[in-house]
Amino acid sequence: xxxxxxxxxxxxxxxxxxxxxxxxxxxxxxxxxxxxxxxxxxxxxxxxxxxxxxxxxxxxxxxxxxxxxxxxxxxxxxxxxxxxxxxxxxxxxxxxxxxxxxxxxxxxxxxxxxxxxxxxxxxxxxxxxxxxxxxxxxxxxxxxxxxx
Length: 148
Description:
The chain is α+β, with helices and mostly antiparallel strands. It has a single domain (12-138), classed as Peptide Deformylase (Alpha-Beta Complex). The protein is 19% helix and 34% strand. It is built from 3 helices and 7 strands. The strands form 2 sheets. It has a 5-stranded antiparallel beta sheet. A two-stranded antiparallel sheet has the order 4-5.
């Protein structure tokens, strides 16, 4: 595993469109492990591959207190969102900036794990709020609201 360099705003590479993952191999597993190590070391609770200049639709999120509940989303797609909640957020690509951002209170996300197995995740609260990482992975980092 390796700690990767996190791109910082206003780096233009943050705006590159991420492409879907089509090969689920050892290289993808290494990317996931490196993303997780980088996120934990930062420290953060979510990181998209685009933020480390790998423009693939891969994200890692861990909102647990003990940092032992890693969620890996490959080719994520938000299929439903309900309610709204304002949560203070920051972004590892825009360090030191935090603001209240309205997000869905509950979301349903379809994705694959790092082995290529499809699954649906239903999340609420902080994990749902960090569905912004799915948007980063599916498109590009948008910096109009913190980093979403």
